[in-house]
């Protein structure tokens, strides 16, 4: 028998208590019972995202919420600045182009984070930019953006700041209101500890003023329609009631110790994981790694896809390989959501065995010991 461990950056493990909620009988959504639950969920999401603004919930993947952010804040011919340092950073630009919006690309070397000064320079050069898109964490490279520094820069301009927090909000620090984020996009299957199927879009007052002035072609993803229903704790179209019920439980788990404790726990796991892989002689790929996952460059002569396949086949541990131009060149270990220190230690132990099997000499226990020292020092 082989125990399976899901250590991918989405989908992630779902707590048993949350899974149990989805096994309960379905009840009707146009009822006071649902409205009470949805109001509690909306309040919990605001706490996770650190905002007093509205949070819109869609039955979609995170990409749906990105599209909602695009089509509700801009019209054809408008201009968007898009920081592109990986596969997911490119997506808002692709959605913008599909909707007739001009893209000003801020092209980054994969693994590098956007420089706040570069965004300031782009806004100075293109004062008519309507929205600036960046990621909290570029999941394919593991690079984290300095949103705390970027936010105040964009706040000085008429442009909105849209942040793809799909893979990191709920794991990496995110203070939406304090940092000046206008549109925060989050998915359910990452640090929020749910299966795929829900997307969240938190909206600032600055963004709402812009949205009110735009004649959006959106029907299902229409933010004005969704906002009209929020005072009644309701949705304009059928909600994914089973997932929302599970979301209520996952938010209870996330918030039981407050978001500061959640961020701290993820920071320790990230530091431990990075210490472990470095001790094995491996290199962390991004220049500014995010605490939601660790992206690793394998040793010379060892294919990253071979590492991922061997980990799953031999040890039941599912990690993620590289995407696009990074395929075979990196592997990705998630430590977000329903993951604890022992999951990280187990993964590092299995990685040591796997590297040795594939011909990379590793002193047994060296990575695990390095990670344990980090964890012990944080206790």
Structure description:
The chain is of the alpha/beta class and 379 residues long. Helices cover 43% and strands 16% of the residues. The protein has 14 helices and 15 strands. It is globular, with a radius of gyration of 21 Å.
Key words describing this protein structure:
379 residues, seven-stranded mixed β-sheet, 14 helices, 15 strands, globular
Radius of gyration: 21 Å
Quantity of strands, as a count: 15
Morphology: globular
C-alpha end-to-end distance: 33 Å
Can you list the strand order of the major beta sheet?
2-10-9-8-5-3-4
List low-confidence stretches: none
Strand content: 15-25%
Biggest β-sheet: count, sense, barrel? Answer: 7 strands, mixed
Summarize the structure.
This protein has 379 residues and is an alpha/beta fold. The chain has helices at 16-22, 32-49, 62-73, 91-98, 116-125, 147-155, 176-179, 205-213, 223-229, 241-255, 259-279, 304-315, 341-357, 366-378, and strands at residues 5-6, 54-58, 79-84, 102-107, 129-135, 137-138, 143-144, 160-164, 183-187, 199-203, 283-284, 293-297, 317-318, 320-321, 331-334. The chain has 14 helices and 15 strands.
């Amino acid at each position: 028998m082989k125990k399976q461990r899901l250590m991918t950056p989405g989908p992630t493990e779902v707590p048993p208590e949350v899974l149990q909620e989805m096994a309960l009988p379905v009840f009707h959504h146009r009822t006071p019972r649902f409205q009470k639950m949805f109001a509690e969920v909306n309040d919990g999401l605001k706490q996770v995202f650190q905002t007093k603004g509205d949070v819109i919930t869609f039955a979609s993947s995170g990409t749906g919420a990105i599209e909602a952010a695009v089509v509700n804040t801009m019209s054809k011919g408008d201009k968007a600045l898009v920081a592109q340092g990986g596969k997911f950073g490119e997506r808002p630009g692709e959605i913008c182009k599909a909707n007739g919006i001009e893209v000003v690309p801020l092209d980054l070397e994969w693994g590098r984070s956007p420089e706040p000064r570069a965004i300031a320079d782009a806004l100075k050069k293109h004062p008519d930019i309507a929205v600036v898109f960046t990621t909290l964490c570029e999941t394919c490279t593991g690079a984290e953006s300095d949103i705390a520094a970027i936010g105040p820069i964009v706040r000085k301009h008429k442009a909105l700041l849209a942040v793809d927090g799909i893979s990191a909000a709920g794991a990496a620090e995110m203070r939406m209101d304090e940092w000046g984020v206008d549109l925060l996009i989050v998915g359910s299957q990452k640090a929020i500890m749910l299966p795929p199927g829900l997307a969240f879009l938190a909206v600032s007052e600055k963004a709402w003023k812009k949205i009110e002035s735009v004649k959006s072609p959106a029907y299902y993803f229409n933010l004005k329609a969704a906002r009209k229903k929020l005072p009644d704790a309701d949705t304009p179209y059928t909600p994914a009631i089973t997932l929302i019920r599970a979301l209520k439980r996952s938010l209870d788990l996330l918030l039981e110790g407050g978001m500061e404790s959640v961020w701290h726990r993820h920071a320790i796991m990230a530091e431990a994981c990075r210490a472990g892989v470095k001790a094995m002689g491996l290199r962390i790929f991004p220049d500014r790694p995010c605490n939601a996952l660790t992206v690793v460059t394998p040793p010379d002569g060892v294919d990253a896809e071979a590492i991922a396949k061997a980990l799953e086949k031999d040890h039941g541990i599912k990690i993620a390989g590289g995407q696009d131009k990074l395929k075979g060149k990196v592997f990705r270990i998630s430590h977000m959501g329903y993951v604890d220190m022992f999951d990280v230690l187990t993964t590092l132990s299995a990685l040591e065995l796997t590297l040795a099997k594939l011909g990379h000499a590793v002193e047994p226990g060296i990575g695990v010991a390095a990670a344990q020292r980090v964890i012990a020092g944080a206790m």
